[in-house]
Structure formats: C-alpha cells, structure tokens
Fold this protein.
Amino acid sequence: MSCIFCKIVTREIPATIIAEDDYCVAFRDLHPQAATHVLVIPKEHVASLNQVTDPLLPGRLLCFARDVAAAEGIAERGYRVVLNTNADGGQTVFHLHAHVLGGKAMGWPPG
Ligand code: DGP
C-alpha cells in the first residue's frame, strides 16, 4: 500500500500523532494553515467521502474531530472541520481526512 496516510497509521512514516482510538488517528498537518491544524483519518483506507459505504465511519470521524478540538482547547471559541473531496475540493491526499482548524477567526466563503 503506497498511501502515505496508511503509512502514518502503521507508523512506517513519522507524524506527530496526538490521539488514536480503534477507528481513527489524529496527527498534526505537515503544512499548518492555522495555529491548530490537525488531520483526523480513519484507520481503514477509504479514498474520499465519495467512497464511503459505512455511514458510521463519517460519524466516528466527526465525533473524533470534535473530541480533538476539545482536547486542543479550541472548542469554545470555535473551529472548522473540512473534508476536501477530489479536484475542485482541493484534495491532494486520497485517504479520507478531516482537517480540524482553529486558533483564529476564519472567513467565509472559503476560497
Ligand atoms: P488535502 O489537500 O485536503 O488532501 O490535505 C492534505 C493535507 O495533508 C495537507 O494539508 C498536507 C498534509 N500532509 C501531506 N502529507 C503529509 C505527511 O506526510 N504528513 C503530515 N503530517 N501531513 C501531510
């Protein structure tokens, strides 16, 4: 498997992992776009939201992202959870991941 995020799950490549449970792993983004920028991924390889078949999976991912935001101390002020999907969505790594962004006020709409 050549997927870099799968290799982070198996510790074949290093990452700053901050949380893990039976289904998800959370680690700091290599190129942070905010004071807090964490990626939350399922351990199981799923290329994007378009390939999800088990509706429990995005629920677990989202709740894990919420718990990460709380642990990072950004839940009260607010944060953003983003799932970039395919080319127009800006997805560059094809292993489903939720960006958890916080620590600054963000604009809307996104670029
Ligand atoms: P996206 O554009 O939504 O596919 O976001 C992919 C993110 O993954 C991007 O913000 C940079 C991050 N990233 C890519 N490769 C690595 C890596 O090897 N380690 C870590 N920690 N983050 C990575």
Remarks:
- Residues 4, 15, 27-31, 39, 84, 90-93 surround 2'-deoxyguanosine-5'-monophosphate (CB under 6 Å).
- The chain has a mean pLDDT of 97.
- The two ends are 33 Å apart (CA to CA).
